[in-house]
Amino acid sequence: MEVVAPWTVSFPLPFRVFVLAGLGILGWATNLHGLHLSGIDVASAMELRLSTSKSSPDEHAGVPALYETTYEMALSYCAWVLLTWVLFRACTMSDISLFDHYAYIPAISTIILIMMLLYPFNGLFRMERLKFTQHVDRQSLLNLWLTIV
């Protein structure tokens, strides 16, 4: 018989990954907030375009709105993770033999989270999602064409 640590039964791996991602979102919001309080122009430093029109004279206005909505996004994400974790715990009743039977709960939760991240329409924190995906694209693709000196 396999010995399992009690904390892995109460807090299985998929939910630990979800919590780490939520802490990452919260850390991002805190970083934006701290940089704004320090007087650093966050939008220019991170090349974040805050308006959709290219002819806007004050394109970097609204930085507080950026970190405030990122905090809201972190709160919404954590509420979703908490809801699915409570559902999983209620279904399995901390019985490790039921984990495989209810493994679809974290799987469906992951699929829904990915669909929400890639949702192309307005809503669901669209501006923050676009900035995130643009930033990931810029960081991952930019390094492919840089020459090493």
Notable features of this structure?
about 150 residues, elongated, mainly alpha
Q: Explain this structure to me?
A:
- There is one protein chain.
- The chain is mostly helical and 149 residues long.
- It has one domain (10-45, 62-137).
- The chain contains 6 helices and no strands.
Structural class: mainly alpha
Binned, the helix content reads 55-70%
Q: Biggest β-sheet: count, sense, barrel?
A: none
Radius of gyration: 19 Å
Q: What number is the mean pLDDT? A: 80
List segments where confidence is low: pLDDT < 50 over at least 5 consecutive residues.
55-61
Strand content: under 5%
Distance between the termini: 56 Å
Spatial shape:
elongated
The helix/strand series, from N terminus to C terminus, equals HHHHHH
| Strands, total number | 0
Query: What is the number of helical segments per DSSP (H or I, 4+ residues)?
Result: 6
**Number of domains in the coordinates?**
1
